[in-house]
Amino acid sequence: MGTEADDTAGNERRLEDTIVTDLSGRMTYGSYLGLDQLLSAQHPVSVPEHHDEMLFIIQHQTTELWLKQMLHELSSARTLLASDDLREALKRVARVKRIQDVMTQQWSVLATLTPTEYAQFRGALGNSSGFQSVQYRAVEFALGNKNERMLSVFRDHPANLALLTAEFERPTLYDEFLRYASRRGIPIPAEILERDVREPYRPHPSLVPAIREIYEDPRTHWDLYEACEDLVDLEDNFQFWRFRHLKTVARTIGMKPGTGGSSGVGFLQKALELTFFPELYTVRTEIGA
């Protein structure tokens, strides 16, 4: 019987006899993940090709993959809330929060791109811009920051328009949570339960007493109390991402306009004033007052 030392003799690990090495006709790691397509989807457009454009492409492609997973989780969370399964819905929210952590940390990689380096290929990007990310807009819609004018950005791409329209017309995560809380006996005002979900969610002072009831009696409403804090985590994380985005853009292009025509940093700054779950923050002023 060989020893562990024998297995690594000469600084080389011996392959175990049970490892499958004949992959002919079998599903493989690469085929399952579609790696031929995924790893050939990076197409720098700068001429001559600039070394750092690959980083720029991969940064945004990986973000889009995580956004796809976030939408998958947020869709499921809303379906679960609608079927009164709060526990499983919060598991989905917990996963979204971990994804947000990864997405925020990714900005530190792009921040290694200096203004001088970016300037050498920025002009080749044309009008392409993160503003045009349909999945990012869908996540915003799912959380409550709906804007009907955004639909027109995707009018020439039927699949993207269909995706965003579906989110535009669907109740938000907060809508489903408040409906669930109402079914649990929390006095959610009818104006909120019956609101037009195509509208951006706006603060409702009449909801604050109901949220306060949850916070001031956590023993009775522990799962709802925990859910409220999970939603606050979700919004905090989203704002951290927005802020990190803003600071990375400022670090890389200063106060230049964005490639998509926005004012750049100024436009991103305004996003920090948006909120998803306003009453969950307002109630903090009320508690103990």
UniProtKB/TrEMBL annotation:
It catalyses: L-tryptophan + O2 = N-formyl-L-kynurenine. The keyword Metal-binding applies. Belongs to the tryptophan 2,3-dioxygenase family. This is Tryptophan 2,3-dioxygenase. Pathway: Amino-acid degradation; L-tryptophan degradation via kynurenine pathway; L-kynurenine from L-tryptophan: step 1/2. Gene3D superfamilies: 1.20.58.480. Keywords: Dioxygenase, Heme, Iron, Metal-binding, Oxidoreductase, Tryptophan catabolism. Transmembrane segments: none annotated. It comes from Microbacterium tenebrionis. Its EC number is 1.13.11.11. GO terms for molecular function: heme binding; L-tryptophan 2,3-dioxygenase activity; metal ion binding. One of its GO terms (biological process) is L-tryptophan catabolic process to kynurenine.
